[in-house]
Specification:
- By secondary structure, the chain is of the alpha+beta class.
- It folds into 2 domains: 2-6 and 65-155, Roll (PH-domain like), CATH 2.30.29.30; 9-60.
- The protein has helices spanning 11-32, 44-61, 140-155, and strands at residues 2-9, 63-69, 72-77, 82-87, 91-98, 105-109, 112-116, 121-127, 132-137.
- Strands 5-8-9-7-6 form a 5-stranded mixed beta sheet, covered by helices on one side. Strands 1-2-3-4 form a 4-stranded antiparallel beta sheet.
- Strand 2 (63-69) and strand 3 (72-77) form a beta hairpin.
- The longest helix has 22 residues, at 11-32.
Length: 156
């Protein structure tokens, strides 16, 4: 049974990536001279590859679902290509943090990993072994409360 499920969409990052995609398409059209000449342009294949990479980034890095169930926290991003499970009994402490504008996606941070799709609040989880996970959420209060309740339930 899931105690907490929240899906967040990073609209800002999605807008930036889609804007870059439109810019690449427009640049390809300018370099080719017309829409019909795009595929014959020498820049077509590199621009197409960049466009595909941007489309994949939109699919993977702009949607994140956090689920808190009986004994685990599960983070899945995008098409569930990036997935992480955190065992609740192994959590030493949790706290709240603010995710800065430059920290979206998933990346290595001091002592652990950050998972976020938007500039928002977040929950900083410190494990008993010293590892750290920061989970961004537009409902960081609800997420912290769900984790705290499960931590109390696991310890009873």
């Amino acid at each position: 049974m899931s105690w907490y499920v929240r899906t967040q969409t990073g609209w800002g990052l999605r807008g930036i990536l889609m804007g870059a995609f439109v810019f690449l398409l427009y640049r390809a059209r300018l370099r080719a001279g017309s829409w019909n000449g795009i595929s014959e342009s020498s820049e077509f294949w590199p621009l197409l590859a960049a466009g595909i990479i941007l489309a994949l980034a939109v699919l993977v890095f702009t949607v994140m679902t956090v689920t808190v169930d009986e004994g685990d926290i599960e983070i899945s991003m995008g098409l569930e290509l990036i997935r992480k499970r955190i065992a609740i009994p192994e959590i030493a402490s949790i706290g709240k943090v603010v995710i800065p504008w430059h920290s979206v996606g998933f990346k290595k941070v001091s002592g652990g990993w950050l998972y976020s799709v938007a500039v928002s609040g977040g929950v900083d989880i410190v494990m008993k072994n010293g590892k750290r996970f920061i989970i961004g959420s537009d409902d960081s209060e609800g997420l912290a409360q769900a984790i705290s309740m499960r931590m109390a339930g696991v310890r009873e």
